[in-house]
Amino acid sequence: MSDYCDLAPAHPFHGPYHDHEYGFPVEDDDTLFERLVLEINQAGLSWLTILKKRDAFRSAFEGFAIDRVAAYGDAERARLLSDAGIIRNRLKVDAVIHNAGVIQTLREEHGSFRAWLDRHHPLPHADWIKLFKRTFRFTGPEIVGEFLMSTGYLPGAHRDDCPIQRRILAAAPPWSREA
């Protein structure tokens, strides 16, 4: 996404994401879940749309608390589908709720969502896609690729000459530790 390094700086929405989040390693599971939710909801839309709605997503999904979202039933699903602040797509809402339950299982089996990701790293992009398709709902090649780049599991978030790339490398994302 090398053109993102040209577009994002000084932009009110893209700038902070580019400079402080995109490509940096993520430690906690709720933040990893947030990134997955945002990438799922971006499908078919612009990233700017998602960034503008991010606070509404955070509120609607209760801070992306995995256990809370996994427990959502019909009332919460209906609330989400009527919330104009987020993307009101039944397939995406259902995927988010389902995927929260999947992450609960991954935490039980591996200790955390992050530990599950670390266990499978490094995989080629095509193998990550297969793994995510077997594990989660609504995760195609673009969603998986952007999720993994945004959380530091795949390189490519920033150009080598982007000043943020030095900070990314200093944070030692998983892709930078490959043999």
From TrEMBL:
One of its GO terms (biological process) is base-excision repair. GO terms for molecular function: DNA-3-methyladenine glycosylase activity; metal ion binding. SUPFAM superfamilies: DNA-glycosylase (SSF48150). It comes from the Bacteria. Keywords: Metal-binding, Zinc. Zn(2+) binds at residues 5, 18. PANTHER family: DNA-3-METHYLADENINE GLYCOSYLASE 1 (PTHR30037), DNA-3-METHYLADENINE GLYCOSYLASE I (PTHR30037:SF4). This is DNA-3-methyladenine glycosylase I. It comes from Halomonas caseinilytica.
